[in-house]
Target: Probable Fe(2+)-trafficking protein
Amino acid sequence: MSRTVFCQYLNKEAEGLDFQLYPGELGKRIFDNISKQAWTEWQKKQTMLINEKKLNMMDAEHRAMLEKEMQAFLFEGKDVKIDGYVPQQKD
Model:
């Protein structure tokens, strides 16, 4: 049985994550307020960011930067700026 959350990213009820995927308070906030769909969207952006900026996940500074981007994307409605990436135009 899947759980439903009011997703702050989609601004509607949606299927929630099955378990907390991120540690700590932020992880709990994501689990309680972010849907599977929104998390999947973030994962795509995160992969592009890691590749674009050649981030090293062993580097605390890089992880902090990524976490900041994640919060802005999921909770503040800010899209991730990736140099040289032009999103497809929606019709």
Notes: The mean pLDDT is 91. Helices lie at 24-33, 36-52, 60-75. Residues 4-75 form a domain with the YggX-like fold (CATH 1.10.3880.10). The radius of gyration is 14 Å.
